[in-house]
Write a structure and sequence with these properties.
CATH architecture of the largest domain: 2-Layer Sandwich
Number of strands: 11
Mean pLDDT: 95
Number of domains: 2
CATH topology of the largest domain: Nucleotidyltransferase, domain 5
Low-confidence stretches: none
Largest sheet: 6 strands, mixed
């Protein structure tokens, strides 16, 4: 019976450091290091039903083999995210919607610097990424008004947004976090060092540079969150909230 915990499972001893980091950062329970006489796969099988969600530190091929006997129904399957030991990709593999794996993939990605991989159709077809920056203490209603105004400027709607992107210094900004929760949108967080290395802005902000050491937040974050992104709304500021919108070009 599932007890509501988040399970984290590693296959190799070399992944212990990452597993411990995820255990602390996500508030989960780590397994796979000491399986006794059991194989790692059998030990996982005995623990699978205990957790509501799983983060598997392994290749997707191994994860598929471990899960093949247990995946039954999307309405009851736990959410499963797979992350490689190099922290390159955090893949929402099972239970993207009902199991919460899509949002879990973003949590894992924000913690490790990995790229979140979400392939559910409703998310994959949403073309917009909104980059956000704000003054400390910005309220939810200020965030909401700024985003709505920005969308109106490019004749787009909120249901077209795939994700929100911001800098790590704003990753726990209450107004941004609460707005994302209310909107049902994942928050992607980029480290300041990455933005410093990719200062993709139309106009540098001296004020932002002096305060946090980057020339901009909303534009580079939105662009970093896309593969084929095109800036359709440069940074616009409303009541202390900076918003930029990038549209992902279709693959084919």
């Amino acid at each position: 019976m599932r007890d509501g915990t988040l399970g984290i499972w590693v296959v190799r001893k070399e992944a212990e450091k990452l597993g411990r980091y995820l255990e602390v950062g996500l508030g989960g329970r780590l397994g796979g290091l000491d399986c006794g006489a059991e194989t790692n796969r059998d030990a996982f099988a005995s623990q699978y039903a205990a957790s509501r969600q799983w983060v598997l530190v392994m290749t997707t091929g191994i994860a598929v083999r471990y899960l093949k006997e247990f995946v039954k129904d999307k309405s009851t399957d736990p959410g499963v995210v797979v992350i490689d030991e190099g922290c390159r990709f955090a893949v929402s593999l099972v239970g993207g919607h009902e199991g919460g794996a899509n949002f879990l993939a973003y949590r894992v990605a924000n913690l490790t610097g990995a790229v979140p991989v979400v392939t559910t159709a409703t998310e994959a077809l949403k073309p917009l990424v909104v980059g956000l920056g704000c003054r400390k203490g910005a309220r939810v209603d200020q965030i909401d008004a700024a985003v709505r105004r920005a969308l109106l400027q490019v004749s787009r709607v909120q249901t077209e947004i795939r994700e929100i992107a911001t800098i790590d210094l704003k990753g726990e900004e209450r107004g941004i976090v609460e707005w994302c929760e209310r909107a049902g949108l994942p928050l992607r967080v980029f480290p300041r060092t990455l933005i410093q290395a990719r200062p993709w802005v139309t106009t540098a902000s001296t004020w932002v540079q002096e305060k946090i050491g980057v020339v901009g937040v909303s534009e580079p974050c939105a662009l970093l969150a896309t593969f084929r992104g095109r800036l359709i709304l440069p940074k616009t500021i409303t009541d202390g909230v900076a918003v930029a919108i990038v549209e992902e070009a279709p693959g084919l």
